[in-house]
Amino acid sequence: MLNRRHIRIKVMQSLYAFKGHEGDDLTKDEKFLMHSLDSMFDLYLSILALLTELHKKSKDYNSKLQNKLLGSDADRQPNTKFQDNILLNIISNNNMLQDIITKRKLNFWDLDFEYVDILFKEIKNSKLYEAYLNNNEDGLEYDKKFIINIYTEIIAPNDKLYDYFEDKKLTWVDDFPVVNTVLLKVLGKVKLTSAETKLLPNLYKDEDDKEFAKDLFKKTILNNSKFEEEISKRTTNWDTERLASLDGLLLKMALCEFQKFPSIPYKVTINEYLEIAKEYSTPKSSLFINGILDKVVKEYQSNNLHLKTGRGLM
Prior knowledge:
Layout: H1 4-17, H2 27-66, H3 73-76, H4 86-92, H5 95-103, H6 113-124, H7 127-134, H8 140-155, H9 159-168, H10 172-189, H11 207-222, H12 224-233, H13 240-244, H14 246-260, H15 266-280, H16 285-302
């Protein structure tokens, strides 16, 4: 579910929030980082729970139409294409998924049903919904495309839902774009023959990625003074405020990877932190960071320091 860039971003956020010192016991802060990473999976599950509730809402809506005392013929025979949507039924009928959602207490939409109502109304009034009901095409691929479209165009951009997630858990605001990407990728790959676990991807690709998160966090803190000194030697003409900002933190993390992770190529590290800087820091940050890191790598290589091991490494 998480790739290395997602992990780097969560480590960056935890380091930014860190108020201790190199000599402190980092156990509590490491737990905070791992909890922050784990909460991304909770957000993913809560969105699937939301899709389940929207599916239930469609059934309730059609049932109420059919039971209207003064209902029209159209009311008595409502279009059930949405409630019959194959992907929504796969999600709702996935016992393993629903059990995990229940155990983690993530189906809070029963209490906060107004958000389900708002989203269902927006979906029902959309041109996407109208076109879907009036199209004779059916099958899983068509149903998947519809759900992915309404999620992308109606659910994910909804400001009230965004604010709700922010109030629910502050870190979810930054996690939302990442989780959305993962969710759409997973939904796009669902097949009729898929096992229930298809909707439950592992949080980490492997144990190495989990250890990478812990090690990058701890080693950046434990070598903070050393990295600060190394950066300051190469930034005499730069504003000290820039070094005290997020840019300085990203440089320290990059130096940590240069020195403490011999299997990660210099080029990979530089590219990752340039992309993170573009997204989270100032417009000029990537140029600043690239200039410093490029200079560091050239010095390391000319002095045979911190050599990288493995195939395809700079």
